[in-house]
Amino acid sequence: MLRVMKRASLEQDLADAEERIASGQRRIAGQRQVIAELERSRHPTDHAKYLLSGLELLQAAHRDARNRLLGKADLGPVHK
User: Fold this and answer.
1) Tell me, what's the pLDDT at 8?
2) How many CA atoms lie within 13 Å of 64's alpha carbon, on the beta-carbon side?
3) In the chain, at which end, N or C, are there fewer CB atoms within 10 A of the end residue's CB?
């Protein structure tokens, strides 16, 4: 019974991690659109690009966390 509960908890943690990754991808795409619009209108992009870099670092951390969970589940890493 405990093993089933741990497995269910791990599966939920993996689902949460996948949602964080998907959400991060949407934020990154949106930020890239903001940068493109700023560039088209010849506005400064430094801050927008700085924010994009932070989002990309956070996304890498989310992927690493997901891969650690996959290691616990013995399913191997996913490279997306």
Assistant:
1) 84
2) 6
3) N
